[in-house]
Amino acid sequence: MARNEWINSYLEAILDVGTSNQKRFESNSKIVQKLGDMNRKDPQEKVFSPIKYFVEEVVNSFDESDLYKTWIKVIATRNTRERSNRLENICWRIWHLARKKKQIVWDDGIRLSKRRDEREQGRNDAEEDLSELSEGEKEKSDVVTTLDPPPRDHMMPRIRSEMQIWSEDDKSSRNLYIVLISMHGLVRGENMELGRDSDTGGQVKYVVELARALANTEGVHRVDLLTRQISSPEVDSSYGEPVEMLSCPPEGSGSCGSYIIRIPCGSRDKYIPKESLWPHIHEFVDGALNHIVDIARSLGEQVNGGKPIWPYVIHGHYADAGEVAAHLAGTLNVPMVLTGHSLGRNKFEQLLKQGRNTREDINRTYKIMRRIEAEELSLDAAEMVVTSTRQEIEAQWGLYDGFDINLERKLRVRRRRGVSCFGRYMPRMVVIPPGMDFSYVLTQDSQDADADLKSLIGPDRNQIKKPVPPIWSEIMRFFTNPHKPTILALSRPDPKKNVTTLLKAFGECQPLRELANLTLILGNRDDIEEMSNSSSVVLMNVLKLIDQYDLYGQVAYPKHHKQSEVPDIYRLAAKTKGVFINPALVEPFGLTLIEAAAYGLPIVATKNGGPVDIVKALNNGLLVDPHDQQAISDALLKLVANKHLWAECRKNGLKNIHRFSWPEHCRNYLSHVEHCRNRHPTSSLDIMKVPEEPISDSLGDVDDISLRFSMDGDFKLNGELDASTRQRKLVNAISQMNSMKGSSPSVLYSPGRRQMLFVITVDSYDDNGDIKANLEDIIKNVMKTAGLTSGKGKIGFVLATGSSVQEVVEMTKKYLINLEDFDAIVCNSGSEIYYPWRDMEVDADYETHVKYKWPGESISSVILRLACTEPETEDDITEYTSACSTRCYAISVKQGVQTRRVDDLRQRLRMRGLRCNIVYTHAATRLNVIPLCASRLQAVRYLSIRWGIDMTKSVLFLGEKGDTDYEDLLGGLHKTIILKGAVGSDSEKLLRSDENFKREDVVPRDSPNISYVEENGGPPEILSTLETYGIK
């Protein structure tokens, strides 16, 4: 009955709130509506709702049977009074909310079970393919197994390799250029506004300090930290500065130092939270690409004899920057590193388990499916993933399709033995704890000096000679007896930080209350009601608990503190012989624990997550169950009361803290990166040097084919041949190309003096998947439009299509289109580039560029099996031999046959360790499986770098719909002109399921870079649209 009394009290509280707000809730139906709409409340609304609080307490704290009993009791005892009727109605409504929560949890359990089965099937398929070894491979295996015993099942084995630790010897001449990316939040080098919002937290501090530390490492020439430029009046003007120097290199060192580079994307005059940044990813990629190319060229001229110095590594932080880094690394063909910081799939599972919101509500609020796909894409592209703890590898990254710890072990062993992995790949997971800048730690912090504290709280406080930190006075004004040891907790006011449990543990332990004070540093606030809903709830609970346990004079909770004052807060706790505690439900790492140890504070920390590794390394504290109030109070009391134990923990922390220094972190980091680069087949990406002055002013506007070639290039003109002979020679050249395996020497392909690109990417097919005749009109209209502009002769043309090169040749022959009018032909959805003015020679460099992680022939049997949704349709999905090439496996799909969507296929391939890009084309009658780094947009970026043409000077012509890569072509800094009515049948229905993210999460609404030309619009209409972009 006690449980029912609690329910009754909560229901009475709800009624009290309703009565006091009679004007808002004039009837019982409006109260019920409020309860029903609770889960659909705008997350940005910063109003504390007592009704929501009490309803959540009932739903989350009591069983469905208890709620049912309470409802029956209310019915049995009701009378005609309005309050009793309202109580019955509310009780019935909350009972059904509890049943709804139970159903959500049940549905989630079924979904997770199904996903586990799919992952297990993927692992079994991969292991089956990897189980059979050749005789030579077996011999290698027999030799190595005696030296490499299998790990015990209950332990994750150490990552063993022949990696050499980075040494500063002989590294000074390496001139490394490193790019870090942290896209969201407010990033600056000084006076960081940590805790201002959920986007500006520990990640900001981490990346800034990492950039500084890497720049101070021998052998590193320059470090750029890329973030978003924000010129909003809501934030300080420093966030709108394009460049900020983080560290100035020592004189004579020869390095450039580290910089924050702010890349504009999205609305410049608006601060955009990370959940709303997804549509602007490609804009950031193009802006970052422009910067990196400029710096690579400049560094090359300074220290590398004019040859560009490309980034040594591109490192993305969090999901959004991870996706940016994946695109940049694929374009530049350099290794990519990922740090997740916090992971979407883990957050998604936790939110579903709470049962408060449906899958759709969570996705709508947090854009969680878009975030998870960005993390999966980052895993696909990453050479290495940096984690803080082993727990993060097993419990968090293990939830992803793109990482399976068992399969990763098997692949790692096979690589070490020299055995084929059949095109399968898993990123390397490495544990490198975050470093710390110990420059703020003074020598006195490692000693027992506390004279300044005594002068503040002693009888001679009026005779202070040495000024004390203002934050000390701000904290100690709360205490009746400031002499007591201080228990310090420092975090955001987030429910996951579990501050209320700490407060309850402190309030219910009388010996601890008598012995110590409690200081809670919970971010900065002006008015609790103006804070986010979750933060206001936490702070309101803190104030209620202080009142409930009568902790006035024993708990400090200052409203404001500066980031520069945090070291003083740690010093105050240490000088009072206090303890630092992190009671979070789950802590991915726990940087504050390391900071506290550096100032000589023993620690008490949650046993869930990274603190396990930290306490093991430092040996300076105790681990507790964050749900166990008694365990928390016992651990605190043990450390505070036992002076010998306190001194031992302090001594151990100060002695071992060097393990978490930034120099140590950078040495480990660069060692792992160097090891990964040894496995990454980087290729040289040359930039064409365009002559500054034309050969002759009289040739400035002459549209001559000779202007397509570089002045240094070796070319041959075939203008003397008629059209039919020319077509035969092209087909022969294509046949010769198919026999080439990339052994041809590298040639710098360049169209000479082109200053702008017109890229035709219209996917015009009929219902049967055949190219429609209107493509001829589209091509000719675009070329005629170019002739009407003042840039005639300086505009290059590129055709980008999902068709094979043979089909393109046949199409141009059929419609009498001169193939030589194009500077480049991008075929098979971006997996190949051909140059008509070089006898349709394939770009061998691009083939090498995109081949990384390409499984080659290993993909054929797997994709045919996975593409079918039903076994009886296998004969209707066959290899399309004439469209296949070394970088594209094409599949023909019989019209009307059901196949898996792109998102489903990609998921199943990831589970098997296969990394590919998948594109449905030709009105969904063909499936192109191409390398991960290949796409039509990536091909255009590749050409823009090679030819020195900025992406802002590229114009893409599309239809209103197209292949399943259509969305990718809409975003970015290039201009997009959509030709209405140009496309009949498309393939987009096979892109993703309705449960996944939406197009508005990929393409920005009302983008200024997207314009439309009405149906049947000709050159004048296209020219008019171009003029809106300033192209005349």
Automatic annotation (TrEMBL):
GO terms for biological process: sucrose biosynthetic process. Residues 792-966 form the Sucrose phosphatase-like domain. It comes from the Eukaryota. Residues 481-654 form the Glycosyl transferase family domain. Transmembrane segments: none annotated. Pathway: Glycan biosynthesis; sucrose biosynthesis; sucrose from D-fructose 6-phosphate and UDP-alpha-D-glucose: step 1/2. GO terms for molecular function: sucrose-phosphate synthase activity. It is an enzyme of class 2 (transferase). Belongs to the glycosyltransferase 1 family. It catalyses: beta-D-fructose 6-phosphate + UDP-alpha-D-glucose = sucrose 6(F)-phosphate + UDP + H(+). Homodimer or homotetramer. InterPro entries: Glyco_trans_1 (IPR001296), HAD-like_sf (IPR036412), SPP-like_dom (IPR006380), SPS (IPR044161), SPS_C (IPR035659), SPS_pln (IPR012819), Sucrose_synth_GT-B1 (IPR000368). This is Sucrose-phosphate synthase. Residues 116-125 have a biased composition (Basic and acidic residues). Keywords: Glycosyltransferase, Transferase. Residues 177-440 form the Sucrose synthase first GT-B domain. SUPFAM superfamilies: HAD-like, UDP-Glycosyltransferase/glycogen phosphorylase. Plays a role in photosynthetic sucrose synthesis by catalyzing the rate-limiting step of sucrose biosynthesis from UDP-glucose and fructose- 6-phosphate. Involved in the regulation of carbon partitioning in the leaves of plants. May regulate the synthesis of sucrose and therefore play a major role as a limiting factor in the export of photoassimilates out of the leaf. Plays a role for sucrose availability that is essential for plant growth and fiber elongation. Its EC number is 2.4.1.14. Residues 116-156 are annotated as: Disordered. PANTHER family: SUCROSE-PHOSPHATE SYNTHASE 3-RELATED, SUCROSE-PHOSPHATE SYNTHASE 4. It holds the Pfam family GT-B_Sucrose_synth.
